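Dear colleague,

Following up on Tuesday's group meeting, I ran the structure prediction for the two-component complex that the binding team flagged. I've pasted the input sequences exactly as they went in, so you can double-check that nothing got truncated or mislabelled along the way. The structure tokens for the whole assembly follow below. Feel free to forward this to whoever is handling the docking comparison.

Inputs:
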Amino acid sequence: MLDALLSGIMELFTPTYILMFSLGTIMGIFFGILPGLDGVTGLALLLPFIYMFESKAALALILGMAAITCTAGAITSILLGAPGTSGSTATIMDGLPMAAKGQAGKAIGAAIAASMIGGVFGALVLSITIPIFKPIVLMFGSAEFLAMAILGISLVAVLSGNSPLRGIISGGIGIMISQIGKDPVMGIDRWTLGIPYLQEKISIVLVALGLFALAEILDLAIQERPISKRQSTVGKADGIKETFKNWKNTISSSFIGAFVGFMPGLGAVVACWIAYALAVITSKKKDLFGKGDIRGVIAPEAANNAALGGALIPTIAFGIPGGTLMALLLSAFWTLGIMPGPEMLRDKLDIVYLIIWTIALSNIIGGIILLIWTDKFAKIAIIPIEILAPIIIVVIFLGGVITNMNIWDLWMVFGFCILGWVMKKMDWPRPPLLLGFVLGPIIERFYFISMMVFGVKWLYRPIVLIILSMAIIFIIIGYKTVRSARYSKIKQNSEVD
Amino acid sequence: MRFKIDKEIGFHLIIIIIISLALWAGRAWPYETSLFPINVARLVLIVTFLSLFIYCFEKNKKGAPVKQETLEQGEVKKTLLNIGWLAGYVVATWLLGYVVASLLYVFLYTKLKGKQSWIVSILITLGTFIFLEVIFVLLLDIRMLPGVFWG
């Protein structure tokens, strides 16, 4: 095992590997920063070409790219409210208010530092758990995945600010929107209004771009003000310091990311929300979240990068992909003649460790490249809106249209923009809608499988009981947060009177 | 007692109408298809009614609506104008294709709405063209969305 570990490191520093890996990292930054493009797009574009390279060089290229997209995705989430990748959606919650307060540099610095730590943590988890993973995987079945999804939806209680009922409505609407399209069991159209476009599920990219990014730009354009009225007063160094100061938050979020990442169908997008909610729950000053609290940037960013390491566990150990990115990675492995599964763990351990080291190093190198550019990125926040708005709107619509090249995608982004703007003006919470949208299909799928396999007995499984107890705790804490927020508001009002 | 429908009540009513229509649309679905979405829709409908009831109760108790941001006449005009720019961009994309519509949008927005100089408007438009054409069309070989009349 030690031989394999060292052999992986030796391979990592060969000139060809460094070259390909650096190329992959730069491509990953590019795909991560542009809304609508992510690791999946990058990998899909690379797949037809990888057979031209030697297998380890190609491995460096694709893993270098896949590992860094989430880190880069945080930059547009913070500056524009446009998540570069779906794993950066929760970063908008506090990243955007920080940019508005003139702290864009600090937020980006913290996001990158947390991403680096999360990415390395994910790789470490992967290296430690690979040999002992089989019993852990076998403990989790559809019932446990369903319980995890229910735990995720219970976060609505935490994400609703001081309006829990509106949060539930918003989350429910998100679930309903996620149900538009063909029913996965019977293949019957649901709420498609007879429009063929709606038979396919609506992409999360369109929802996030419209609900947050375009709605925010529309609001700024109406108010005729830039993202931030002030030059960024605090830089990346402050953000990095804050990440290390909040080390408990960083590590626990990385752990959540790696844990949720390995669960099929959940991945970085769910991990970032769970980590965010846990950061709120464990904080003493809960009311600061959503208004530009740095911990609200650190938690999701540490989690989404760690999720990649977690997601690779079942992919490498069993050849079972947990999501689209992993499915593409798996097909890339096959193209390169690498066959993931128990045999790979036995006979090709050096390649397994090479994968692990590549992810860790890619996070570090990519993070450093991004940190060098942080202060320049932060200056985007003070560009006058009449110049910034058209450019950003073009990029947002590009993100919407690029996957399917369908005009309906743009109407969807436009529609969600109007909904997001109205919700913002009416003070209705938008994050629960996005969370409901993400978790709706997951809950439905695992609910059907669990009911078919276990009947109602799925509820009595020990791990399910533990996870559901945690969900109840989340709801109670959410309720208490609302109560304490209301109490402090009443107290403030009475003091003013 | 005269009851005035404010924005909050209006928004609740819109949600109630949409969910009612969604429930009506799903009445003929088979059990497996309807089980999850219809139950969620029912729950959301109940919670929306509850939220509306609580809002009306609190409003009635206080005698005045909870403080809300109200749009002035000028703001309404600005809001509609900005939404119009976005809708116009989508319509232009449908007619002329993504690249041409984007260039037109950037130029017209910076020149007419942003009141920038000709040079600034042309430079930003040119930058957008290079960004779209070089990175996406030439490097990534992506064929941009064509329009009905162009592309």
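Chain B touches chain A through 57 residues (CB under 8 Å).

Cheers,
M.
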